Amino acid sequence: MFADFLTRLVRPDPAPLTDLDAQLALTALLVRVAKSDGVYDVAESNQIRRIIAARYQLDSAETEALATRAEALEAEAPDTVRFTRAIKDSVAYDDRLGVIEALWKVVLADGSRDPEEDALLRLAASLLGVTDQDSNAARLRVGKGSPWG
């Protein structure tokens, strides 16, 4: 279903993603982080839908369609390293900071911080070229009021 998209995404020198492809790739990364602890629960799924609806100004049908496509893409996507590199090459640093905030929202959505989620988020931040300090600041911004912030 996503063979052409994934082929373009993992080329040694991928072309910049279109806005729609970037939305799909970023949403799939949110799903990957949510699944990293072996559990993809309703709280995480709902948080992803809230994030993408707000970020991309989507109505409920568009949000559901993007989330469903992203869940399917994530299941077929290659390793996180190549997948995330393509996003880095296509998205400006300030937007990548927004992605890290969104990833932290997903990690914290179920009320727990699992080591697998933390490790994947650290890897994703590094691969996206976001510094540890900026990632930590993003975690603190989204975790206010949470014992995991």
TrEMBL record:
Source taxon at top rank: Bacteria
CDD domains, alphabetized: terB_like_2 (cd07313)
UniProt domain Co-chaperone DjlA N-terminal: residue ranges: 23-139
UniProt-recorded name of the protein: Uncharacterized conserved protein, tellurite resistance protein B (TerB) family
Organism: Pseudooceanicola nitratireducens
Organism lineage: Bacteria, Pseudomonadati, Pseudomonadota, Alphaproteobacteria, Rhodobacterales
